[in-house]
Amino acid sequence: MIKWQGKLENMIAKKPAGWFAKKMYSNPSGHYRAFRLTLDKLKLKADDIFLEIGCGGGVLLNMALEIVKQAKAIDHSYDMVQIAKQKNQKALSDCRVEIIQGNAESLPWNDNTFTAATAANMFFFIEKPMTVLKEFYRVLKPGGRLVITSTEDSILPKLLFVLWFHSMHLYKNSVMESMLKQAGFQTVEVKNMGMFCQLSYAEK
Ligand SMILES: C[S@@+](CC[C@H](N)C(=O)[O-])C[C@H]1O[C@@H](n2cnc3c(N)ncnc32)[C@H](O)[C@@H]1O
Fold it and tell me: Which pTM value belongs to this model?
């Protein structure tokens, strides 16, 4: 990959930084469909303990906090953590949410902490997918649900994301399914939802 492509990819998507990224992820209009699909599938209830990795500007987190009482989120971008905190200021001051800067490959929470977890539009940036899936498994309680929205592995998205597709990790549904099972998940379902969206659902 050319050096400027890598820098652009980081600034805009992989580790967003700067005023443009902050503006974009404060209201990521292109991501609302994935947020809706995630919430429809997770069917959150007030007593769920929700986790989001790669939370970006905290918009999905904010939607989840309209339902759940307790949530936690992690993102490795300093700027994203700042805007996610602004977006969820009220829940933060009510001690209903924790938003931290860190790597999703090593989650700073105990085993069996959460009942519902998600990664929206970010799993394709994960360098060690099995590590992250095992981390999800570890921190979820038995029966906990996981939804990952990503991009299906086919030619059209590769053309669309031509600038950085060679550093994106896209998986066929069957591969995603076997990785989730390998991580320990019992009930696993991976589907294409149209508009290049791949939705993976799994239960511990
Ligand atoms: C394309 S953005 C999506 C943000 C948000 N989930 C959304 O849908 O609007 C990808 C996000 O994942 C974060 N991210 C990527 N790799 C990560 C990692 N290994 N650990 C934590 N966050 C990560 C980035 O910083 C960025 O905020």
Answer: 0.95
